[in-house]
Amino acid sequence: MIKKLFRNLLLTLIAFTFWQCNNDHNLEHDGHENHSETGETHSEHDELEGHEDHDESEEIDVIISDKEMKEFGIITQIAGGGELQLHVNLTGEIIIPPDNLAHIYPRFDGIVKKVLKSVGDKVTIGEVLAIIESNESLSEYEVKSLIKGTVIEKHLTQGEVINDSDHGFVIADLQTVWAQLQIFQKDLPYIKIGQKVEVSAGKGFTATNGSVSYISPVIDERTRTATCRIILDNQDDMWRPGLFINGRVTTVNILVNILIPKTAVEIINGENVIFVRAHEGFSPRHISIGRINDKTLEVIDGLKPGEEFISTGGFTLKAELQKSEFGDGHAH
Questions:
Q1: Shortest CA distance to 244 belongs to which of 202, 194, 188, 190?
Q2: Which of 114, 169, 271, 296 is most buried, most CB within 10 Å of its CB?
Q3: Each residue's pLDDT tens digit in the chain (332 positions)?
C-alpha cells in the first residue's frame, strides 16, 4: 500500500515538472516573437526616416549673388513653350551652276600674241581675254568673254602655238552658286522641296539660310545617294566652289509645352539636371527629356511653365554643388 502511494506521488511530481518546463519554453518563445516584431517595426521606421532624409537632401540651394552671375556669364530664362524644329543633317559641297560657266576657246589655230587676263580676274561681257595671230590669214583676232564673271581656268601662254580645244579660258559667274547636298536612303522620306536649310562650312564662315529647290529623281549608282540643291547668293564671294559644307534641313516644326536650350542641361551623377530658382539661390532638379535637336530640347517632366531656370552657365553651379559635397562652397 505504501509502495503504491509512493509511486503515484512520484508520477504526479514528474508530470508537474514536465508542465513547468513546457510553460517556461512557451514564454521564452513568445518573448522572442515580440522582440522580432518590435525589431521589424523599428527597421521600417528607420527606412522611412532615411527616405525622408534623402528627399530633404535633394532640396539643396546653391547660393550665388547677382555679381557672381554676371562675372561668370550665367543667364536665366523663364520656362515656357515653343516651336521645336526637327532636322536632318546632310553633307555636300558648293558647285557652280552649269549655266554660269563659259568655256571660251580661240576660233582659229595660231600663235598667242598676248594674254590679257589671268585666273582670278574679273571680266565683263565682250572684254578681251587674249589676242591670237591666225595661221590662215596671218592677221590678229581677239578672244572675248561671252559672260560676266571670274576667270577660273586659263590654258594658254604668250608665244604658244594653239591648234586644239585644250587651249582657252573658263569663266564662271559666281554671284550665285549651288549648295549640293547628299541624301542617304534613310533620310529620303523626310526631305521635301521647299524645306528650309541652314548651310554652314565650319568656323570662320557665317551660316546662310536657303530652301530646297531640287531633289534628284535618281540615286547615284556609285555613292548610293540622291542630291538636293539649295541656291545661294554669293555676292561677297564667301561660298567658293569645292568648299565642303553641312546642311541642316528642317523637316518638321512641333509646338511643345516646355522648350529649353541644350546649354541649360548639366549631367550630375548620370542624371539630366537643370538649376531652378528656389529661395535665395538655385536648386538642382532632375528633368525628363522628350524630343531634341542640336540646339533645343523638350522637357516632359521636372520643369513647369513660369519657373526661372539657368539657361547658360549652369556648369558653375554644378562645380559649387560638387564642392559642397566635400564641405566647401556656397550650397546650403
A1: 202
A2: 169
A3: 444 444 554 444 444 444 444 444 433 333 333 333 333 333 322 322 333 333 333 457 788 888 888 999 999 999 999 999 999 999 999 999 999 999 999 999 999 999 999 999 999 999 999 999 999 989 999 999 999 999 999 999 999 999 877 899 999 999 999 999 999 999 999 999 999 999 999 998 999 999 999 999 999 999 999 999 999 999 999 999 999 999 999 999 999 999 999 999 999 999 999 999 987 789 999 999 999 988 999 999 999 999 999 999 999 889 888 876 655 555 55
Residues 294 and 248 sit within 8 Å (Cβ to Cβ): yes
Nearest partner of 200 among 243, 152, 242, judged by Cα: 243
**What's the pTM value of the predicted model, to 2 decimals?**
0.65
Pairing mode, if any, of strands 271-278 and 208-215? Answer: unpaired
**Residue type at 90 in one-letter notation:** L
CB 229 within 8 A of CB 180: yes
